[in-house]
Amino acid sequence: MDAYREAVEQALAAFPLLGQQGEEPVTQPQEGGWEADMPPQPLRSAMRYSLLLPGKRLRPVLLLAAYHLVSDDWERALPFACAMEMIHTYSLIHDDLPAMDDDTLRRGKPTNHRVFGEAVAILAGDGLLNLAYETMLSAPIAAERPQRALRAAGEIARCAGVCGMIAGQTADVTLEGHTPTAESVRYIHLHKTADLLTAPVVAGLTLAGATEAQLDAGRAYGRGIGLAFQIVDDLLDLEGDVQLMGKETGMDAQRGKQTWPAAFGVERSRRDAAEAVEQAVQALSSFGERGAYLCELARKTLVRKA
Ligand code: GRG
């Protein structure tokens, strides 16, 4: 994980359109700062602020490790890995907005709208989403392997889109206060969370030239780790430590969210998360030893504290 994560951190920090390393956040427009090829302030700062706060980088790491299952030159997939983190960060910024979950803390710091205001936070989310597709489509790997890159970008767009993460988020916000059912909670978890964890696995495999059978295995792995990840997230909201989580806890119950423990109870939630991880691990069996890293990553999902 460390090599993948390190590479992602470096690539994100040096990202050309996001300004200089160590730049202080700018919350107001800057006089004369209207260059044609740079995002204006405070948009640039707002995008950089959330993207570079310490996150686990799970989605980009999944993309690089999935690529590495099939091919050793995983660094070539870095632009797609960065794009995944941009899409994820956009979703966090928008999820924290007053119109959605109205959160004050994310990744251990004030949420984007608390620092830059609501309008700029919305635009920073929009900006990161667009920058993700710009990054994928202008990556060297897209020129070298256009068919694989188009298919990978299409998979990411579909999983992040209106039948994927956005669908799950729609159910999540509109069903607040409704009694959770097995069907509604499963729908939310599979789409809001698992789709955005499946996308990088399938995209990484696709870029590396995986077979259809390997893509199916990647899909099953993503679904398993994604489901487990969200069930554990629900449990952490009930029992986790605010300092370690870097966000408020206890909010799901307060908002009447559709969570796995609310639908099935805590004990069953733990069992279901463990079972989903085992399914993820099983799915990678055909990769043999090469799958060991991703299997370990899935197992760590169960004991994560943040
Ligand atoms: C606004 C379209 C739209 C979608 C928002 C991301 C999201 C969907 C909602 C955030 C709330 C939530 C519990 C989402 C489930 C996915 C999840 C656990 C996100 C947090 O991901 P981590 O733990 O965060 O990987 P870091 O900060 O480590 O990257």
H and E order: HHHHEEHHHHHHHHHHHH
Structural class, from secondary structure content? Answer: mainly alpha
- Radius of gyration from the alpha-carbon trace, in angstroms: 19 Å
Beta-strand segment tally: 2
Q: Overall 3D geometry?
A: globular
The DSSP helix count reads 16
Terminus-to-terminus distance = 16 Å
Q: Percent helix among the residues?
A: 55-70%
Bound molecule types? geranylgeranyl diphosphate
Biggest sheet strand order reads 1-2
Low-confidence stretches: none
Could you report the average pLDDT, rounded to the nearest whole number? 96
| Main pleated-sheet profile | 2 strands, antiparallel
How are the SSEs placed, and which strands pair?
Layout: H1 2-13, H2 43-52, H3 58-70, H4 78-95, E1 105-106, E2 109-110, H5 112-116, H6 118-137, H7 140-144, H8 146-160, H9 165-174, H10 182-208, H11 212-239, H12 242-245, H13 251-255, H14 260-264, H15 266-283, H16 292-303
Helix pairs in contact: 1-4, 2-6, 3-4, 3-10, 4-6, 4-10, 8-10, 9-10, 10-11, 11-15, 11-16, 15-16
Q: What can be said about this structure in brief?
A:
Helix content is 68%, strand content 1%.
Describe the structure in your own words.
The protein is mainly α and 306 residues long. It is built from 16 helices and two strands. A two-stranded antiparallel ribbon has the order 1-2. Helix 2 packs across helix 6 and helix 11 packs parallel to helix 16 (292-303). The radius of gyration is 19 Å and the shape is globular. The structure holds geranylgeranyl diphosphate. Geranylgeranyl diphosphate is lined by residues 55-56, 58, 88, 91-92, 94-95, 107, 165-166, 169, 192-193, 230, 233.
